[in-house]
Design brief:
alpha/beta; globular
Length: about 110
């Protein structure tokens, strides 16, 4: 599902007329990495919103701990990665994402 969602956003951006965004848990970004890399290589300004960014152990257990996912995304060429600590930083993340038309942006929240 995550790969298809990201690939559809790539197609929407390539077609034009819209600024697509998609969202999922940060841990599941690994399923979308192929399409996200395609966004970066194609210079598509897709906005990826990744929620549940925590190293804490929640009700879903250790399968939902995105320990290494931010490093994977940060190492991808032409990919902005923002991890906001408060509301002001979150506003700045969205501003960066909206101004970066030729670069996809991942916002970890």
């Amino acid at each position: 599902r995550e790969h298809a969602m990201s690939a559809i956003c790539n197609g929407m951006f390539a077609y034009g007329g819209v600024r697509p965004f998609c969202a999922t848990f940060l841990q599941f970004a690994g399923y979308a990495l192929g399409a996200m890399r395609c966004s970066a290589l194609s210079k598509f300004g897709v906005i990826y919103i990744m929620t549940h960014d925590s190293i804490g152990l929640g009700e879903d257990g250790p399968t939902h701990q995105p320990i290494e996912m931010l490093e994977s995304l940060r190492s991808m060429p032409n990919m902005n990665v923002c991890r906001a600590a408060d509301a002001n930083e979150m506003a700045a993340c969205y501003q960066i994402a909206l101004q970066s038309v030729g670069t996809p942006t991942t916002i970890a929240a």
